[in-house]
Amino acid sequence: MIAKADQYPLKAIRAHCLDCAAGNTANVRFCPCHGTGEASKCALWPFRFGVKPNSASLRKRLGEDADYLLSPDRMPPADLPLEKCEAWIREQQRRETPGAESHRVASIEHVHT
What we know:
mainly alpha, globular
């Protein structure tokens, strides 16, 4: 998923992050390139959702996990398996529950597509 030249910069960043994560939105969401611990630091990490990192709309979409997913200091270490990440576990539980919560999670994956 290579970004087109006519894309807005934030959309191009989102496309790049999806390309880097082999199209897997969970890998973009829990990207280990936040620069803490042993992980490499990527300047695009704060913009990986395709919107401004501290926008109210993004915080609303991310819900209770917003602070966790937007703060490099609170992200899990790069070597922590996703299965042990609290935010990832909550997301999987929401995906298994039909209704409004699953719709909210789906909208997070498609932030401003």
